[in-house]
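Chapter summary example: a protein plus zinc ion.
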Amino acid sequence: MDHNALQEARSISAWLNDIFFRIHRHPELERQEYQTQALILAELERMGIEAKSIADTGVLGIIRGGKPGKTIAFRADMDALPIQEETGLPYASQIPGVMHACGHDAHVTMLLGAAKLLADRKEELQGNVKLFFQPAEEGAGGAKRMIEVGCMEDPHVDSVFFGHCAADHPTGSVSIRPGFVSAASNPFTVTFRGKGAHGASPHKSNDVIVAASHAVIALQTVASRRTAPTDSVVISVGSLHAGTAGNVLPETASLQGIIRTLDPNTRIRVTKDVRQIIEGIAAAMDVEAEIEIVEGYASTCNDESMTELVKHAAAALFGDSSVYHQPAPSLGTEDVGYFLQEAPGCYYHIGVGSKEKGFVYPVHNPRFAADPDALPCGAALYVQIAEEFLQ
Ligand SMILES: [Zn+2]
Ligand SMILES: [Zn+2]
């Protein structure tokens, strides 16, 4: 490498901060990322990078290298959260009840920074760099939509990378693991229906509260009794509603919950198990059950060799001791998994924490804030990954 990507990225810190503060002040909820999209399109145009809108509020950019080669893609999600910001920062959100509490503003800024540096040296690039500015990560499935409208083709993407902000790691560090990193999600709703009656005459009812209670307990056996102890399954019932008075047996009881899994085969089996248990309890308790299981995000699995590539690139910029091995996957979700199902790649965490500066709160917290000094680190790492991958 005849240049230092981190030094170059630090030389554009003022520009990075300006972009970051602008996006942070004007957070937009998923599927409403119009201003953010306009900002990205304008900045890419200024850099002379080919770009177009995609999936309504996203942006697809491409830097075509001067020499032929493979195509690498980087993804930055764009949406904010319905949270009232409590950071007290001078560049805090100006939109009541909406906040960039997951660092997606930093993700966009880091990728724009990388685009700027890569565009400057595109004649030397052996291949192409695609820029995926993805809307609607927090639930509405922007990644899937971008794939459906062809972001992985023309030219075909060989590998995809993404670094998510993590405040529990210091600025200038990376946390990473090969294999599964985040979970598949299947939210579900169950409604039990039966005959209502006076609480003193249970024999005249089909007691849906007893059925729902059995269901909550029995669902836990999917993880504890039907799943290998070394496999990861979570079933959580977070909502349980029935009845209006102590002496009335109601006609309906409903529960809502989530299923989280890592292995795609386990996911299929667990959703079947949940149905079987609910149907079995309904039959045993002589009530009816309506079950809805939603196909949420897929799990994310990092390719071994692409993970090694990121480790190497990160160590070259930040030093070996700043590359942490993430010991276990999270059972949280990230829709970057859809891209990684299409092409091998890696999803890692980029440190944005600083105890001295008070950047210590986790993502989705109203006090979460990313250390702006992490912006050049994230941008430089994309540049380094691109150059190592395309070499
Ligand atoms: Zn989030
Ligand atoms: Zn996020």
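Key point: The longest helix spans residues 264-285.
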